[in-house]
Amino acid sequence: MCKKILNPVLAILSFFYLCGCGPHSTKSDLPVYLDDNSPVNERISDALSRMTLKEKVAMCHAQSKFSSAGVPRLGIPEIWTTDGPHGIRPEVLWDEWNQAGWTNDSCTAYPALTCLAATWNSDMSLLYGKSIGEEARYRNKNILLGPGVNIYRTPLNGRNFEYMGEDPFLSSAMVVPYIKGVQSNGVAACVKHFALNNQERYRGFINVNVSDRALHEIYLPAFKAAVKKGKVWALMGAYNQYKNQHCCENEILLRKILRDKWHFDGVAISDWNGTHNTMEAVKNGLDIEYGTEISEKGKSDSYDHYFMAGPYLNLIRGGELDTTELNEKARNILRLELRTNMNRKRPFGSFANPAHSAADLAIAEEGIVLLKNDGNILPINDNKVKSIAVIGENAIKMMTVGGGSSSLKVKYEILPLEGIEKRAGKDIKVTYERGYIGDTEGSYNGVNSRQNLSEKRSAAKLIEDAVAAAGKADYVIYVGGLNKSEGQDCEGADRKGLELPYGQDKLIDALSDVNKNMVVINISGNAVAMPWKNKVPAIIQGWYLGSEAGNALAAVLFGDVNPSGKLPFTFPQKLSDSPAFAMGEYPGKDGQETYNEGIFVGYRYADEKKTDPLFCFGYGLSYTSFKYEDITIDRSEFDGKGSVKISVRIKNTGNRAGKEIAELYIKDPESSLPRPPKELKGFSKIALEPGESKIVTFNLTLHDLEYYDPEAGKWKAEKGVFEALVGSSSRDIKGSARFNLTKTTYEED
Ligand code: BGC
């Protein structure tokens, strides 16, 4: 039976065939049309058998900035990727980063992933993934370049806002529903950047030296969860090196861990310009190369010079490589095609609609963290307060433009000042003063915020005017922090220091001298120093909240929403309290950087060294109060089978409905290897009416007790006593229970 497509007309029929929806035929000169029930592998094998060498190689590298080839002759569609991870990137030109000038690509901006992590609510993560996936689907993209799960190692990393914080358990729990939500649309999520891309400085070449233990316990778990539990269909390699080999072609990461141990059956793609060597990329499991900068930039034939294009073909033709790897890559790519744009059952998607705005708002409201509220000056009582001075550039600056590849072109963005004015209504007088000049630009890759932020007043005059306005108002709401310009929360560079930029510390200090009802909203994806912490009564961590930013902040300020977010990373007092500085070698030297702090990242370090964070991991206040009582455990001896159940009753003791996140940490007081004083192993977010109480039950399995034993190359749960600590934050432990693990076990990675 001849399986060749005989003429171009058959290409169309062939598409339906490969999708599994064509008619059956027994004619020898026509393809055998398989039905939907045909096993995927059979359909892949069949497609593969029809493809030429050149067609297979063409699938392994980009054909434009964001796409790679299908097989036009066979009707196999192209792959179209899009950033990610906070909204769908606007369309750029085929060969350039500049805008294509479409008028129908203004998306919904969702909160940055740090905010999502701060919700500690997996339902929010699912909603996020489902919503952004619908937008990707509508825009005909079949790979969404996100989510990002690199661990927050240093507060200076310019891209922390795109990730899910410092804890492997929290980020693992939050990444899985995001992926499932995206993929329910027939769009592949692409978890990134695998692995150890924990800083932007030197990202293109820095070689990370990290212990096996820290690699497995801290830096890999969220990726592993994405692959094994989230069943993610795509993964992006990182720019940096590990074991002196670039991560996009890294034998240990891509071949031994990702494929051999975790059995990843999706597509491994490079970061843009992250491929460096044909043989290594081919052998070690990279499937598609994107973004390589070839000297004839802008010319369409530059794609033929990619490492996985012409040079790959030449190695095969010259006999240095056979087609084993090529067939593996083509299989992975075809599998992704069948899961996405060749899956005729996938939904159609939707774009920037009211449901997506509502999703953004809900996530933003749940992620905002109330850090301080002395004298309960929040929420603002709109019956009493008559005037508010809003101060700070971030109250009027769009935050969806900038920050690097996650920059967006949005349908709309409610700015904080706008949200506050709207909520305050006509009975409260709202005035605005800028107070400082940060960044007056607002453009990225040709997307312009079209805001005119020019300012003629001097810095001294701006402070003077702001102080005057603050002195006259009942309340001051200061909206400052970082922004998405270079050197702040932005890809490609790191921050220079922990302090707020643009002289904001001095300004906040001056404002707090003239008004005691002062609320500071810090807009950032990173920890910042707060030398004025004791001088202001209320502080809010406001993140980057997306299209509905202003509405979400106003809802929390006025108490329409009771804040319920908690910090997904530690705010250190000073840089020297951050392990990457205290023990590590950040930012590295001569291309090398050693993570000397090992597993002691974030609160693990703060607990071990007994430092006093500005705000600890897992911390966040509410407008109500919660009482933890009756901590119980269902057994004192655990043989490793099933789970240990720890329960706690939580009561809302205030007079407002609210949500509390209960956190469970384990402590292994005696172990052969040093372990952190506590490690997060469970959390649960519950809603409680005033006076209501609920019992929260955590199930600890053997897996939760393990550490990575580098000698054995396995996970080890060591017999002996464990403590389960139940708390409202990593530093507010309400009670504990002990149990005895009766035997030592090992588990393969
Ligand atoms: C970033 C990726 C992004 C890609 C495409 C790279 O610079 O590191 O996260 O997905 O560009 O825009």
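^ beta-D-glucopyranose complex. The longest helix spans residues 122-138. Confidence is low (pLDDT under 50) at residues 1-13, 20-33.
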